Every structure is written in structure tokens, then in C-alpha cells.
Amino acid sequence: MSRLITATGLAVAHGARTALSGVDFHIDRGEIVTVVGPNGSGKTTLIRALMGAVPLSSGRIDRAKGLKIGYVPQKLAIDPTLPMTLRRFLDLPKRVSDARAAVALEEAGARDLAMRPLSGLSGGQFQRAMLARAILSDPDLLILDEPTQGLDQPGSAAFYRHIEHLRDAHGCAVLMVSHDLHVVMSASDRVVCLNGHVCCEGTPAVVSAAPAYRELFGTGTGGALALYRHDHDHDHGHDHGHDNAGHFHPHHDHG
Amino acid sequence: MLLDPFLIRAGLAALGTAVAAGLLGCFVVWRRMAYFGDATSHAAILGVAISFALSISIVVGVLATALLMALALTLLERQGREVNSSLGVLAHGALATGLVAMALVPGGGRIDLDAYLFGDVLTVSWAGVGIIWAGAALVAVLLWWHWSALLVATLNPDLAVAAGVRPARQHMLLALLLAVVVAVSIRVVGALLITALLIIPAATARGLGRTPEAMAAAALAAGALSALGGIGAALWADTPVGPTIVCTAAALFGLSLLTGRVR
């Protein structure tokens, strides 16, 4: 298993405010890693730092040589006056052949969107369009910022299944940011819980049982906690009181 | 009458300006940099005053001042602060400082202020035409060269980084080109109306093309039509040329609204 990115002692400041400090992070080929955390916890800052889009105030980031990153942004600053079809967008910044574009569009489930203007796409269509753009370069690492914002739960679940399928087909790693705890955790190999620093990390089951995670997400996530309740889970002495939520869980077979 | 050399020079000067402003104007509209354009072009008046004070070429003085202003604004934006009010302060502050400086410069009373505020294209020399077309060519070539990178950086800076494009550099390039457009346009439409020449043709072209390139071509055409039509109308009605060019551009924009509604 090859390491794609290693970050050590990462710190990022926005002006006087510290967004991230003392963050160690790594991701390997083939892994699906999800960063969860409350608003303002530095999730997006972390992925921007890993991409090299923000300067570090300390720490270092080592990227594998020739690492190709496919990035799925949350939104585009697309002015309504800018005419941009999805097909034209795929040509940015480098022109691609129609054949390659067709493959990427098909894989992302965006084939019928090729000639549509980007500014007119719905939330789900937009995510598939951005996904097509991201996989076009056959990336080693796919980075998605809040990919299911604006999707309902079945829509999110379908999107994550799609991501898993892409990971299997391309053998790439996937790094996602989300606060959509329920679905995202079941789709991840590893979860990193962030709040300016790494609170806890591990498999979804480990993280959901961690006291730091429970403290951070508190009462609002009873359902998510219950989803990952297993017979072998340790009881940390908290009163969960959300056992009935476990019935919502369709099936769960993390490794 | 149409073949009078001064008219040919004016026409060529206005055309060159329209080419540069029309192309760059698309990015000004797409990135909503109108205020940025205002601040940069208003700084040109300060540049004129400085040129007189130091007895240097107006083009050089204006280019340098506009460039400094554009770079200052770019750095200000990079700080991530709320920049709208700062832009307003800088835009009007630079204009007022320039006007005051004009009065203080020795012999400043003899400066024809209107020529710099509203343009004076009918007196342009062949050298002036040459400078305008050199500037226009620089803008067109650099835009062509960086077109895709500029588009990605406009859509999403992080996406640009992931694709190996440095968005800060693209932003800097636009600031530089804006300063060039200001320096070549001041003779044609004057400092106060440069932003109009950037924005109106691009706004007229929206919806006329299905790709960014088609829109840029339409903006260029709208700008060129306004430039020549404006000179013609100004001669016919005996009105100042710069404002008449902008009026023509605005009329074309109105026309595009009407035809858009009919379609």
C-alpha cells in the first residue's frame, strides 16, 4: 500500500485566527478517508492545505511524486453571464479528446449533461458534473468538499456508493469532507474527526464510540451513534438512550 | 472628409482600445471586478499629475500608477478582508488626490483636465496610435496565452490549484492587463469612462455566444462597433467623442436587451 500524502504537525492560520494546529494526517492509495467536524473546525482548510492551496504556518506536507489530484469543489463562482457548458468545462485547463470526455461523463453518470450550461444544473447534477471533471485526469487521489450538500439522504447514499465504485475501478484514494455523518461514515475506511486539531480517528466504529467524538457531536447525532453500535463496542459509561435509532440502519459491513 | 488623417488616427485609436477593453472586459464581468476597474482607472488621474510633475511621458506615468494601484488592490484582496469599502475609498481617494495634485503641479493650470477625464481622441498622434495598438496586442496575446488558466481560476481557485494553475498569478495577470488597458484608454474615453468601456460591451455580449470564446468575440465586436459608431455620431452631433462612444455602447446594450426579450 503506497502512501500518497503525509502531513506532519500541520498548522494554518487565517490572519490572527488559528484554523488548524498540530494536525498529523496521511492517506494511502485505495483508502476512503472522511474528515468530519462541526462548522468552522477547519475541515475545508485541511483539504485546501493538502492540495497546496493555503500557506502553512508550520508543519510539512509530503506528497507522492507526480501525485495527481482530482478535486470536486462544493461550488463554482460562475457568473450567470459566463457561458460554460459541461463539455467545455472539461477542457479546462487542458483540452481533452471527445472520447476521453465521453468515458469520464459516462463514469460519473453525467452523460446527458454534456451540453448543459453549468449554471443551470441542480445540486445532484452539479456534483456528477464536477466528478466527471475530477476523474478525467485519472487521479491518484480524489478530494471532495462536502459532496452531498443539498442532496437528500437516499441521494447522498447513492452518491457515496458511486464514489466507492469509482475507487474500486480506478484504485485511487478518496478524501472527503462532510458533516453528513450518517451516510458518510458507513462509506469510509477511516474517519478523522477534526476540531482545529485531530480529536480522534480510526474506523467508523472506533470513532463513533470515541468520547471525543461524542463530546463534539453530542446529542444531535444519536442516530449516527446508534448506527455504529455493535455487540463488541465498548461502553464508555455514557447513557446513549437512542437504541431505537438502530433500526434505520440498512446494513453495515465495514472492514 | 472621412479620409482626413486625424479621423483615421482617431478611428484606429478607438478600435485598438475597444479590442483591449472588450476582451479584458469579459473577465471583469465574469469575476465582478467592476469596482476594481474603477479604482485602477481613477488612479490614472493621479498618474497624469505625477507625469507632469516629473516631466515624464503620460503613458508611462499612467501605466505605472495604474499598475501600482492594481497591485495594491490585489494584495488587499489576498488579505481576505472585506474589500468593497476599501475599494471605494481607494477609487475615489485616488481620483480626488489626482485632481488636487493637478492643481498643485507647477504649471498645472495649463493642463487640459477634460482631456484626461473624458478623453480627447481626435488629437491623437500616430505615435499615440502605435502605443494603443501595442497595448492592445499585449492584452490580446497574454489573454490568449492564459485563457484556459484564467477561466479555471475564475471558476474556482482551489480547482485551479488542483489542476496545476496558480490562481494568485492569474489574478495578478488580470491586474496587470487592467493597468495596460487604463493606460491605452485614457486618451480615448478618459479615466472616468474606462470602466464603462470594459463592462458595457461584455454585458452586451452575454447570451450572444454559447462558449466563453464566442462571448469574448461578441464583446470585441460590440466594442469596435461602439468605437466607430461613437466617433461618427460625435462628428455628426458635434459632441465629445469619449462620452459619445460610451453612449453608443450603452445603446447597443439596450438593443441587446430588446432582442433578447424578443427571442
Ends apart, CA distance between termini of chain A: 16 Å
| Count of alpha and pi helical runs of chain A | 9
- Outline of chain B: globular
Provide the β-strand percentage band of chain A: 15-25%
- Low-confidence stretches of chain A are 221-255
The gross shape of chain A turns out to be globular
The average pLDDT of chain B is 90
| Proportion of residues in helical segments of chain B | over 70%
Q: How much of the sequence of chain B is in beta strands?
A: under 5%
**Number of separate domains of chain B:** 1
Order of helices and strands of chain A: EEEHEEHHHEHEHEEHHH
What brief labels describe this structure?
heterodimer, A: about 260 residues, alpha/beta, 6-stranded mixed β-sheet, globular, B: about 260 residues, mainly alpha, 11 helices, about 0% strand
Q: Layout of helices and strands, plus pairs?
A:
The complex is a heterodimer of chains A (255) and B (263).
Chain A (H helix, E strand, L loop, with lengths): L2 E12 L2 E12 L3 E5 L6 H9 L6 E6 L5 E4 L13 H5 L7 H11 L14 H13 L5 E5 L7 H18 L2 E6 L2 H6 L3 E5 L3 E5 L1 H6 L1 H7 L4 H6 L28
Parallel strand pairs in A: 3-7, 3-8, 5-6, 6-7
Antiparallel strand pairs in A: 1-2, 1-4, 8-9
Chain B lengths: L4 H26 L3 H21 L3 H21 L5 H21 L8 H6 L7 H30 L1 H6 L4 H19 L8 H12 L6 H26 L3 H22 L1
Helix pairs in contact in B: 1-6, 1-8, 1-9, 1-10, 2-3, 2-4, 2-8, 2-9, 3-8, 6-8, 9-10, 9-11, 10-11
Write up what this structure looks like.
The complex is a heterodimer of chains A (255) and B (263). Chain A has helices spanning 43-51, 86-90, 98-108, 123-135, 153-170, 181-186, 204-209, 211-217, 222-227; strands at 3-14, 17-28, 32-36, 58-63, 69-72, 141-145, 173-178, 190-194, 198-202. Chain A is of the alpha/beta class and 255 residues long. In chain A, helix 3 packs across helix 4. Chain B is an all-alpha fold and 263 residues long. In chain B, 80% of the residues lie in helices and 0% in strands. Chain B has 11 helices and no strands. Chain B has helices at 5-30, 34-54, 58-78, 84-104, 113-118, 126-155, 157-162, 167-185, 194-205, 212-237, 241-262.
